[in-house]
Amino acid sequence: MPGKPSFYITTPIYYVNDIPHIGHAYTTLACDYLARFKRLDGFDVMFLTGTDEHGQKVEKSAEAAGMTPIELCDKVSQRFRELADFMNYSHDDFIRTTEERHKISCQALWTKLEENGHIYLDKYAGWYSVRDEAFYGEGELEEKDGEKVAPTGAPVEWVEEESYFFRLSAWEDRLLEFYENLPQTVLPNSRKNEVKSFVKGGLRDLSVSRTSFKWGIPVPGNDKHIMYVWIDALTNYMTAAGYPDMDSEKFQKFWPADIHMVGKDILRFHALYWPAFLMAADIDPAKRVFAHGWWTNEGQKISKSLGNVIDPFQIVEEFGLDQVRYFLMREVPFGNDGDFNRQAMINRINSDLANDLGNLAQRSLSMIFKNCDGVMPSPGKLTDTDKDILTAVDSLLPKVRDHIEVQAISKSLETIWKLVSDANGYFAGQEPWALKKTDPDRMATVLYTTAEIIRQIAILIQPIMPDSAAKLLDQLKIPADERGFDQLGGDHRLASGFEMDKPEGVFPRFVDQ
Ligand code: ME8
To answer: Looking at domain 342-492, which CATH architecture does it have?
Structure first.
């Protein structure tokens, strides 16, 4: 039997100069949703997240906090791990760039680039932003309060020092070919166009080492030089896949990665530098970089200085984990910017979850519990109306899957909730409560049909709301090994005749205190 197809998805690795906030939680959540979806859909998944611990920014933050760099890294990296557990992420690996496996991997990639003739020693004279850990050309800079700043608004400093360079300028044509021939390597399309026009504007060779700080991975054979933090950081994706052991089963299976998920702020590094480094080392680049949008808070940019950073721990405490997971993925078309708005969160919880899905499940299952002696009834002869709604739920997976293939996350949820709404229409239209006395067999058929719809919906929403979906599936007594997407559709109907437990509501209304 052929093995399962593989799927490798990565989050950015987060800088340890900052504590985790909603933006970090968002990116990893999107990956968690996709990873869980793929696992249920029969893929062998590797889902990677972690922390980016080297570079000048972290070195300076540690100094400011009166700690050694590794003390700061240990502390903040641990906080990111806690967030990952708290948010119920299903990552398979959590990488830290201070690990030995990563040093070996970076040095191997460097050596390969050098052997292939893509790295040379020269002198760098130009602008650098420590906050962005990025080099900027004179033409890219802007003015703020009489000072030169990066296009991101970050301060820049003039740097002049000996540096190794990567021959990025030699990769313009190959990169453009790469975007052209493989049309979905960068999504959304608007982002791809952004990267293409940057490349068309001409590429300068990239400084890839520094001598003015120590906190990083030394260049093999010349440890006066520390690797540029982005070459170090990007390589994490290969380290976790087993690089430099390219013959290993893991590397063979999972490389090239299927998706590097990133925020739009770090698109250039992933869609331009990273494929160029890899092609220069004779390694296939990832199949896709997806750049999502940014969250604002009640219309304002989220920033430490404005004091409006949203703490994911706090909002989950207030609204509930699955509720926050659902809101973040449903509210904003994935790829666009979004605004975190309290009222919008409450509306989603009360309308989509409590009213639409919660009520449907609670009303129908309680009715079975009360009116059918707590035993799941068998359906009688199905009417056309029953058949229509069952056909709609049976054919949901391919539609949802099509959205997942292009990371249209909110659309995938919208599609499921359209069916929830139709199912509510079905339930209300059939009035099972009125059938108890007049036609109990018909009542049983309607209730069974509704329970079967809930079974399929609960299976489909496991990636977004794993705990709530599990509660629904437990109420329907679905065994653990019958919760995969292979159980969707008409071939695996809900069993009849089992005894139910008294159903408990899964999606409470949110009442503002
Ligand atoms: O850039 N809205 O790390 P970082 C949405 N270490 N997403 C946001 C966000 C917001 N307001 N703020 C942050 C780095 N993010 C590098 C990455 S990868 C090889 C190295 C998310 O800690 C978004 O995914 O600054 C963004 O790309 C990432 O956090 C930046 O995290």
So the answer is: Orthogonal Bundle (1.10)
